[in-house]
Write a structure and sequence with these properties.
The chain has 157 residues and is an alpha+beta fold. It has 2 domains: 39 residues, no CATH class; 105 residues, no CATH class. Helices cover 49% and strands 15% of the residues. The protein contains 6 helices and 7 strands, in the order βββαααββαββαα. The chain has a 3-stranded antiparallel sheet. The chain has a two-stranded antiparallel ribbon with strand order 4-5. Helix 3 packs antiparallel against helix 5 and helix 4 crosses helix 5. The longest helix has 30 residues. The chain is rod-shaped and about 95 Å long. The mean pLDDT is 95. InterPro entries: DUF4376. This is DUF4376 domain-containing protein. Pfam families: DUF4376 (PF14301).
Length: 157
């Protein structure tokens, strides 16, 4: 097929073999098949609500990744995975630090007392609260974003 765009914006199609060339009006613009199909079937952009939902749907994974990313505290990098946090909770509940050391994210033995383990726990809790607060801020920001902002949204600090 041969495709053309009329001055009125209509898509015109004629046989490729030339048998209908006599019917092609003057002052039309030749189109590729892809352009003709694109103009004839324009895609409907997603609604703002769909874009908002898509942006909101990114937040749980962002929050999980941030929570598992670890924390710098007292000159060391510490794991903050669920298992690592459970180990800290268990030690605090038991009221002891096994052998007086804790293993940091680089697998170094770090001297640790119950008080310094509490301080590490407090830093982990504070970091978690900061992450959650940022998530709440992003949720509120998403609700007031325009289309272009929503299309480009990526969770971040």
């Amino acid at each position: 097929m041969k495709y053309f765009l009329s001055a009125e914006g209509e898509i015109l199609a004629f046989e490729a073999d030339g048998s209908q060339d006599h019917a092609i009006p003057e002052n039309v613009v030749s189109l590729s098949e892809a352009d003709a199909l694109s103009k004839a079937n324009p895609s409907t952009p997603p609604s703002l609500e769909t874009l908002r939902s898509a942006a909101q749907a990114q937040l749980p994974a962002w929050e999980s990744a941030e929570r598992a990313a670890g924390i710098d505290h007292a000159g060391h990098q510490w794991l903050t995975t669920s298992a690592a946090l459970q180990d800290i909770r268990d030690a605090l509940l038991a009221g002891l630090v096994p052998d007086g050391v804790w293993i940091d994210a680089e697998r170094h033995k770090v001297p640790m007392t119950l008080d310094t383990l509490r301080a590490l726990w407090a830093a982990c809790v504070s970091r978690g609260a900061t992450i959650y607060q940022r998530r709440l801020e992003m949720e509120a920001e998403i609700e007031s974003m325009e289309r272009e902002q929503l299309e480009q949204f990526f969770p971040s600090w």
